Amino acid sequence: MICVCALGGCVKSKKDAQIELIECAAFQSEIPQSLMEMVYKELRNIGVEPVEIQAIPTLANAYTAKFDRTEVSARWNKGVTAGKGLVEKRDVAAIAKYLKSCVGTFKDALRD
């Protein structure tokens, strides 16, 4: 992955962001509804409106056909594993931080 970092932010290539968005969707799929209210509150505390994460699964699904099935499966599994780990710990702050990074990935995936 090529990453250009400036002012503390990192911009991924559009292709890298698109495949990473699949991982984000998998991560998000592991968060149970029972934790979502706390996660939304934490997202707001770190400056992210919950609506910013809502389109991630839909867009990620659109990219699954674009990439090799093996790569898609590997990224999906990586996201599921990360999600399960943080959900088991009930680490709401870490879940929100991960989702915040996914908002940046979402924006990178859509840019021209």
Task: Please provide a written account of the structure.
By secondary structure, this protein is mainly alpha-helical. The protein has one domain. It is built from six helices and two strands; from the N terminus they run ββαααααα. The protein has a two-stranded antiparallel ribbon with strand order 1-2. A hairpin with a 2-residue loop joins strand 1 (3-6) and strand 2. The chain is globular and about 35 Å long. The model is unreliable at 1-8 (pLDDT under 50).
Short description:
By secondary structure, the protein is mainly alpha-helical.
Task: Provide the fold topology.
Layout: E1 3-6, E2 9-12, H1 14-29, H2 33-45, H3 51-54, H4 56-63, H5 69-89, H6 92-110
Antiparallel strand pairs: 1-2
